[in-house]
Design a protein that fits this description.
Elements: H1 15-20, E1 29-33, E2 36-42, E3 54-59, E4 65-67, H2 75-97, H3 101-131, H4 136-205, H5 220-240
Antiparallel strand pairs: 1-2, 2-3, 3-4
Helix pairs in contact: 2-3, 2-4, 3-4
Length: about 250
Amino acid sequence: MPRKSILPEVWNVPQIFRDRLGEVAGRQRAMQAEGHLMLVLHAPSGPQDNDRIECFFWRTPDGVWSSDAFGGGPNAMNKHLSKYATLVEKYEHQDEVAVTADDYFDVIYGLAPLQRSARHLHEVLQDARKMCPEDRDLITQRDRSYQISRMCDLLHNDAKNGLEFSIAKRTEEQAQSSQQMAVSAHRLNMLAAFFFPIITLTAIFGVNLKHGLEEQSPPLPFAICITLGLICGFVLKAAVNRQPKNP
């Protein structure tokens, strides 16, 4: 039983094209035989797409183009390139509004498969241009594919730089916070060391002095003592959290 070809059955292409294609299209490439040109391309895909959707473009010796997804004529390739351009514009907008590291990572993660496909697409059209130097439309399409691939590279680099800057900024903020906490801890340790002898002595011997406030209008002395303690606490908190001077 003959093996079924993944090329459209109605295409009257050289048999070598059908023989060179398996059950899946494989990598993007250009093939030429008997004056016919066959382009095996991939539709743009997202990061979650495990399988690539193939697109076939066939040029007859007399210059007539056909495709399995975009109809006939040279404009079929332009439609294919427009799908890439639309996705590039989408990720470009995401990069413009990106603020956090997660935002930049989403751009890089989504752009990665598109970047690879666009680069290989340009290489295939460059090969096709060499195989059919008389086809002027291939020059325009090749140049457009280069612009798309170039935009992918620039956008990837921009998002990568944004991600690295965001990470560096967050690291600097954490370093400053850690430094402030270290200074505050040092100040508290100094206070604890200063009062430690007094606290130890009063704990051993006890200090219960007669100050005369025990019989004075309770609970007014207690309320005054609590208020003074809170005020001293706020003053101490402000002193401990004071930003250190830059050297």
